[in-house]
Amino acid sequence: MPMNRQLLRSQLERHEGxxxxxxxxxxxxxxxxxxxxxxxVGVSRDECNLMLDNDVDMIEGQLKTVDEYQSLDSVRQTVxxxxxxxxGFYGLMxxxxxxxxxxxxxWEDASYEMMNSKWARQVxxxxxxxxxxxxxxxx
Length: 139
Description:
The protein is mainly alpha-helical. It contains nine helices and three strands; from the N terminus they run αβββαααααααα. A hairpin with a 5-residue loop joins strand 1 (19-24) and strand 2.
């Protein structure tokens, strides 16, 4: 007879509790969720891919509320989702001059504004690549 997975799950949910942010367990191990020991167990590639998909869906959903984003081709939309993934939606929305340039379809200026930022200095080659894609519309 197979183990009753539903019973076990209800027990573990009750015994472990759910924490959506990392915390230290009773023996000091970095833990998340229903007691997942991140230090010893970590996460699988499939779990990482699921988290990545969820994060991309979230930032894309937020960006779909922005008219300038909606008017872009898919390649330039990818640039903005990439940036939003890196710095969050609200961080990306602070690029007022870049957004204005996008609104004018001034790709040179949008690219310049991306590079003329603290973000570009922090991420280096990533910013160079993304700003060039924004400028040309080509990967």
